[in-house]
Amino acid sequence: MICGGIDVGGTKMEAQLFDEGMRLVTSRRSPTRHEDFDAFIAGLAEEARWLIAQSGRADLPIGIGLPGIVDPVSGASTASNIPTSGRDIAAALQASVGRSFVYGNDCASFALSEANGGAGEGFGCVVGLIIGTGVGAGISINGTTPPRHNQLAVEIGHVGVPARTLRRHGLPEWRCGCGRSACFEPYMSGKGIANLARWKLGQEVSAAEIAAHPRGGEVLDIWADVTAEALDTLQLLFDPDCITFGGGVSRLPDLAARLEQALLRLRLGTSRPPALRVARHGDSSGGRGMALIALRAASSPSA
Ligand SMILES: [Zn+2]
């Protein structure tokens, strides 16, 4: 057993232990604690201690993938789905567990994992887009994360939806968890699908139930059109060769085909669309990527 990763999401955190071939040996999930910062750190410390105990190695390289942004200078966190904004997670966890860890953005580590033995293998520029409780993306170039980019997220979930898209569907401006309105997240995320269903059908239908609902197609057409605008933005800014999808919403049936069609309708001129692929490592991908980052940091400490 050579490395571990902890993927921290808005709903749950998952600790994963990997062997020499980056195969998952064992994992465990627990709910992300939201009461306050101290409770959040206590939950995270428990996952870290579990990994250390499972591996039998006090110095096991462990990478922790966090949603949102960690300022590389001050260590202060900014996140809309976990109670850590303005706080230094690394310092608090070190005080609790008595050793240091490697940190990165959960979406950047997801992109790295999929670019190394995942759905983005063989592509030069891979954007990993996680659509779950929140919406965020990361980038891997030639199988690595660009300098500082394992800390810096591509916060596409908090970019504004274009006025043309809202107007096309007559959609209202919905408030986002970040405090602003009409970000992509409240339309694209799992909750976003439920928001669209409530608005379009007047019914409570969850993202997991939408595909089987008799009028689910109407909701998913709007969702795909809004999501394709986000993909178009990613394409215009980064020109990725491949976009891989993770998070709960990536389990929608025919996700890639549905988004390919929607993106083709929007694209600018004859620009080459990226390949769209659902993640190969699924829910384990974020932790797997962080484990890889920790392993690489341990083998070249000066990097
Ligand atoms: Zn937002």
TrEMBL record:
Keyword hit for Nucleotide-binding: yes
Protein keywords: ATP-binding, Carbohydrate metabolism, Kinase, Metal-binding, Nucleotide-binding, Transferase, Zinc
InterPro entries cross-referenced by the UniProt entry: ATPase_NBD, ROK
GO MF annotation list: ATP binding; metal ion binding; N-acetylglucosamine kinase activity
EC number of this enzyme: 2.7.1.59
UniProt-listed PANTHER family: N-ACETYL-D-GLUCOSAMINE KINASE, ROK (REPRESSOR, ORF, KINASE) FAMILY
Name of the featured protein: N-acetylglucosamine kinase
Organism of derivation: Pannonibacter tanglangensis
